[in-house]
Amino acid sequence: MRLHIPRCLTLLTASCALFALGLAVAQEEEPVGRAPLVGDVANGTRLYRMNCAVCHGFDGSGAGPAKVTLRTPPADHRDGSLMNARDDRMLMDVIRAGCANRGCSKAMPGFSAALDDLETWDVVAYLRSLHLPLSFFFPRLDQYVVKTYAIGTLGNEDFQKGQRERLQEHVGKLDPKQGLPHTVFTLFREDKHRVSPELVPQDPRRLALLKKESKLGYVLFLELAGPRGGKVPVGLALDRNYTITKMVTTLTDPALAGEYNKRLEKYVGMGQRGEKPAFSTVNPKDKAKDKVALHFDKEVTRTYAVAVEAANCFELEERDRSWADDTF
Ligand code: HEC
Asked: Is domain 38-131 classified as CATH 1.10.560.10?
């Protein structure tokens, strides 16, 4: 079924009217009016195959037949870290106008002549179905920021040393100049019933308006070493207390993803601020038997330790921004 924006706006207005009447619209429920604003994925798939797959590939991996002719490889739309660094509005804009003057290679053409606004919205919905969108981790999300930090190189000497020492047993000695680069998404709620989450740019004035009390938590896209070699890409969500609220693999093979997700689920609820991470899902009596579980314990502990230090980098900047007001 195709859902057009005007109908959704009607729904949105209806929910606003309910608020105005003071009727009980539970605050903790999914915002009314957000779900129907999703474009039509089936139509988006069709349009993507016609217009985009030649470069980006049928699977969105960036490996379309025209890739060999391009100097810049087409973006991998399955990469949550890359794709969530653009909000829906930015994706609309880049698809309609092309990459030129938008900080990406002008090999990416504009499609404003081929696709109208609703069709572009459907393509955005399809793009979002190829990776884990941030709202998968925190449905109440309204605004977010993204930044890549070189962990172990920021803040004063003590802070840097502390980060490097805490990570040493998990990732080895860190180069004090290079650090360990990681991208962190920090998510906020606002209760403004936005159509879709907004990416707040790295502008000090905009960042200063983000309130610590509205912070939902952090999302990171990381890689575990697989139990049989290879890499297992995962999306990890931490709440404000650094407790794991979600951890899933982004692998597309359903059998493998199912197997890994069953294991990753066990870590939900583990971890908290100030605690030295050492996760265990194995009964001490079975230690010799369950090698795969032991492997996951170690890998998840390592990834979590890195995620916490990356989130600490955000909080360091947050403290610097707000030391003068009373939020700290
Ligand atoms: C002629 C080849 C080509 C076609 C056709 C094409 N793209 Fe791209 N696209 C690229 C290249 C190359 C990049 C990488 C640009 C870069 O990383 O600097 C890119 C990047 C992107 C990005 C990431 C932009 C960013 O902000 O970094 C998005 C989103 C995207 N394409 C969507 C689409 C969609 C949707 C379509 C179809 C409607 C499409 N592309 C068709 C070549 C193409």
From this structure: no
